[in-house]
Amino acid sequence: MVTTGTWDIKESVSSPVYSTGKRPIKIHTKTVSDEMSNNHYESCIEACNQCLTACENCASSCLHEQDLKMMARCIELDRDCADICSLAARFMARGSPYAAKLCSLCAEICQACGDECAKHHMEHCKQCAAACHKCAEECRKMA
Amino acid sequence: MVTTGTWDIKESVSSPVYSTGKRPIKIHTKTVSDEMSNNHYESCIEACNQCLTACENCASSCLHEQDLKMMARCIELDRDCADICSLAARFMARGSPYAAKLCSLCAEICQACGDECAKHHMEHCKQCAAACHKCAEECRKMA
Amino acid sequence: MVTTGTWDIKESVSSPVYSTGKRPIKIHTKTVSDEMSNNHYESCIEACNQCLTACENCASSCLHEQDLKMMARCIELDRDCADICSLAARFMARGSPYAAKLCSLCAEICQACGDECAKHHMEHCKQCAAACHKCAEECRKMA
Amino acid sequence: MVTTGTWDIKESVSSPVYSTGKRPIKIHTKTVSDEMSNNHYESCIEACNQCLTACENCASSCLHEQDLKMMARCIELDRDCADICSLAARFMARGSPYAAKLCSLCAEICQACGDECAKHHMEHCKQCAAACHKCAEECRKMA
After folding, report:
1. Is the dihedral of CA C134, C138, C139, C141 positive or negative?
2. Which of A135, B54, C56, D58 could form a disulfide with B131 if both were Cys (CB 3.0 to 4.6 A apart)?
3. Domain ranges, ordered by start, for chain A
């Protein structure tokens, strides 16, 4: 559950979607579009948070594997993926006009990280692959 | 739900809690203590993610309030709070030996941010105050 | 000065440019291309760090201005700009294959933030505009 | 060079040191104390940026070393160290009242990371050890 999405008409001026000229929003439609974008963002923010948690855990776990060399690329991708998921979630939560573009790059990195993790049989990699692929899918919807 | 906590005996060497000499863990108790620490961390990671989402949304919403001057300190604290929650969640997810110390500072900033937000009647501030106070409580348990 | 770029032949296997299949690098050319990419990245990392410092300072200073409403968009852009500069610098420093794509988005946000800051006469805005425009230029070279 | 520290009397209301009651500053002394704190912060922000760049580079380089197992703890510490340096630099740049406390933890992590890197003979580790120890020293002055 994300603590957004409850603006009423009275507070529609407090829109977190900020006015950069790229998304002109009329006052009367603002409340509705905000609620839409908040509902719209909610599951993607959640997917990003799940994915970054899985990536952080996977990277730490990989570093303790017996065949560490085999995990090097996985660790590298986990690091980039956790970072971009973290920022994508924050851009969405703050209603940044750049959220969609960041989600597009996030989807690409999540897909690559998930594909790499899916090659390994360890539980942390399998969990990470699932979280990455889910997040890639959610981010593609935003982009 | 956090995608950690499912190590079995066979994979107990892959512990994400890394070995800095501060938390010596014997092989046979590692699986159990990992599961404990993952369960232990899980609700705090979740609280940090909720809190940072609420803070990002609150800061953006504050910037569109009529009486913006009144919200300046709230915006400043939202920013620090979102940043520290984000890093605390990641340190916990990766099993960093510094997670507890970061949670201690996170609790202090969350408390201050929640107290400031609680002074305002806007829905985004009320939601943020609740998320901050919840997170402060969870972080104090980790510290 | 960035503490990279001093690999010699013997250590050329330790390339920070990681192997995702997108940038195949032969051993004998690796050292040279690394040095090139480190020199290449160095001034952009520096520009990103300058820019994010200026944005953090500008946002804090804006929040204490008399006409705070006039600064709202500046604060919003400062926040996005500081975040993306921070991540772009880190992706470059670690030799991520996604550094160029992140720099492309970073250039766009820096340009928008610099253009907004340039509208204001305060010293912190003028300094921030200069840092943003410089960083946009450096990031465009990477993209 | 950090783009801060040029407030004059007229703009002394735009202090980036925000008012949480912990650092009460009188108007007439504000300009001076700001300049002091900006000069004070400047070399520490620079040290943090150098350190995080070195840590990112070291972690990526470690992942390509022949004896990767020997580098695992180095990679773990590089990651924590880069993250905390990044946030410490930003808290200082924005004049957060929590900058000193974050610098205190940053100093501890930098020291541990520098000590670990100093055990290895690779150029990236030597450079990282130097950057970490320098940053630990600068952060201790802030704490």
Report:
1. positive
2. B54
3. 30-142
Instruction: Give yes or no for B9 touching A (CB within 8 A).
Output: no
Mutation for A interface: B50, B57, B126, B132, most A CBs within 10 A: B57
The sign of the torsion formed by the CA atoms of D5, D9, D14, D16 equals positive
Cross-chain Cβ contact B123/A11 below 8 Å: yes
Hey, is the C-beta of C99 within 8 angstroms of any chain A C-beta? no
Quick one: average pLDDT of B16-21? 40
CATH of region D28-142, choose from 1.20.1270.360, 1.10.8.100, 3.30.413.10, 3.40.50.300: 1.20.1270.360
C69 → closest Cβ in B68, B75, B76? B68
Q: Does B22 touch chain D (CB under 8 A)?
A: no
Name the residue of chain D whose CA is nearest to A64's CA. D72
B123 compared with C7, residue with greater pLDDT: B123
Q: Name the token pair of A62.
A: 């990989």
Res D4: pLDDT: 38
Local structure of A19: helix, strand or coil: coil
pLDDT tens digit sequence for C14-56:
334 443 333 332 223 233 344 444 567 999 999 999 999 999 9
CA distances from C44 to A27, C23, C78, C133, D124 (A): 41, 20, 18, 12, 20
- Whether chain C has a CB inside 8 Å of the CB on A102: the answer is yes
> Which residues in D lie closer than 8 A to residue A76 (C-beta atoms)?
60, 63
d(CA D142, CA D140): 5
Question: Is residue D1 within 8 angstroms of chain C, CB to CB?
Answer: yes
* pTM score: 0.81
- Distance from C-alpha of C96 to C-alpha of C103, rounded to nearest angstrom: 11
Architecture of the domain defined by B29-142: Up-down Bundle (1.20)
Output phi, psi for A23, to 5 deg: -130, 70
Q: Compute the distance between CA of residue C89 and CA of residue C52 in angstroms, rounded to an integer.
A: 10
Could you confirm whether domain A30-142 is CATH 3.30.310.170? no
Separation of alpha carbons A130 and A117, rounded Å = 9
Fold of the C26-142 domain: Substrate Binding Domain Of Dnak; Chain:A; Domain 2 (1.20.1270)
The pLDDT of residue A38: 56
Q: What angle do CA C83, C48, B61 make, to 5 degrees?
A: 25
Contact D129, D118 (CB under 8 A): yes
Average pLDDT over residues B46-65: 97
- Say yes or no for a CB contact (<8 Å) between B60 and A94: yes
In this prediction, residue B103 carries a pLDDT of 98
Hey, how many other C-beta atoms are within 10 angstroms of the C-beta on C48? 33
Q: What is the mean pLDDT of residues C72-92?
A: 98
Binned at pLDDT 50, 70 and 90, residue A39 comes out as: low
Choice between C32 and D79, residue whose per-residue pLDDT is larger? D79
